[in-house]
Amino acid sequence: MRKPRDFNAELKALGDKARDLKSRKVQQLGELVIATGADTLTADELAGALIVLAETKDTGKREAWAKRGAGFFQGRRSRRTAPAADRNAGSASAQPNGPQPASGRKGAA
Description:
The chain has about 110 residues and is mainly α. About 75% of the residues lie in helices and about 0% in strands.
């Protein structure tokens, strides 16, 4: 005869896992806000920008934003893994115009 399943324990374990995932998601979103420099915006500005992003149906804009976001993450990944000398040489060739000011990022929509 098989051992009966403890549904209550399984439900509790699933609930705990869901709570942990939600907590990790919130933490990662906060880290993303800080990493992108969006923590300098007020909560109203950030919420307004996110609402506009969520409401945008223009696939061209969404694709451009996705491409820019992918580039942001690829840049972060290469900075973590590349030695300091490679980082300096690579960043000069990758961005011939130098780093863009924070205000240049806000207007790109």
